[in-house]
Amino acid sequence: METTMHKVSKDTVVYAMSAKNKPVLYANPSETIQFETWDALAGQVKSADGGLSGLDWGRVNPASGPVYINGAQPGDVLSVKIQCIDITDTGVVICGQGMGVMGAHLEGVTVKIVPIKDGYAHFSDNIRLPINKMIGVIGVSPALDDGDIPCGAPDYHGGNMDCKEVKEGATLLLPVNVPGALLAMGDLHAVMADGEIGVSGLEVSGMVTVTVDIIKGKDLPLPMILNDDFVMTLASDVDLDIAVDMAVANMVDYLVKNAGLPPHDAVMLVSLAADVRICQVVDPKKTARVEFPRNLLPV
């Protein structure tokens, strides 16, 4: 049976995840959607010469969409399988005064335009970095009572989690908070390390192909990521310690409720086998994740 393919243009963007956003597309479960996306700077920076002078900060972190998923209702889980991420052949990376972890120690702003070729980002004549394509901003509308959440911020709805495991082959699970979920995404990175300490990955435009589905009647500590090797829980908070505690508690909760483990066994297994990692420490809320090996889950 032929699969329906939808496409979202990068000309239809939002700057906040919100129940008030009007859908640009309606899609059914099991259908495939292509999201054309801007980079995090909305294509405004094309040269390193001018730094960020003249940048319209109101256009930063655009997310293409949103898409209304037919049949998705509050309490459901939205499954987003990332099939493919295609990126442009150059990226932008920035750092400077007031930005990121080291912003208090820098003067001025530096912009670098980085060519991407043969699977590598050519940072300089003698430094090249292997590509690890990922989606920085991907999320759904928050609950109606929670108002609007800017695309630059992560929270329980997803958003700007800047998690490098949101990549090809992974499935992201998000809560459905309003009818249709209202899925949107953008802020692709060609290269980014855990932490994103300088406030920027290698920012690129591109095209993301996903398949969406709806999971009903499942109690999951969302957001979560599944891939061939790991189950991952994520959490965000202005305090990184709290984000870590939340991500750990979510993993223990998952193992107790969905793998049938007693609470003490779940805690011991997480302590022995799960890695706690930091996604990013530069957004309004910091994001942590816990990675648990799937081969240890009861069949």
Count of distinct strands: 23
Strand content: 35-45%
Helix-strand topology string: EEEEEEEEEEEEEEEEEEEEEHHEE
The radius of gyration is: 19 Å
Main sheet record? 9 strands, mixed
Shape: globular
Task: Provide a descriptive summary of the structure in words.
- With 299 residues, this protein is mostly beta strands.
- The protein has 2 helices and 23 strands.
- It has a 9-stranded mixed beta sheet.
- The mean pLDDT is 95.
Keywords:
299 residues, mainly beta, 9-stranded mixed β-sheet, 23 strands
Compile the SSE list and pairings.
Blueprint: E1 5-8, E2 13-14, E3 16-17, E4 25-27, E5 32-37, E6 63-69, E7 77-87, E8 90-96, E9 109-117, E10 120-122, E11 128-130, E12 134-139, E13 149-150, E14 154-155, E15 158-159, E16 171-175, E17 183-189, E18 203-204, E19 206-215, E20 224-226, E21 230-237, H1 240-258, H2 263-273, E22 275-280, E23 286-293
Parallel strand pairs: 1-5, 4-6
Antiparallel strand pairs: 2-6, 3-13, 5-19, 6-17, 7-16, 7-19, 8-9, 9-10, 10-11, 12-15, 12-17, 14-15, 16-20, 17-18, 20-21, 21-23, 22-23
Helix pairs in contact: 1-2
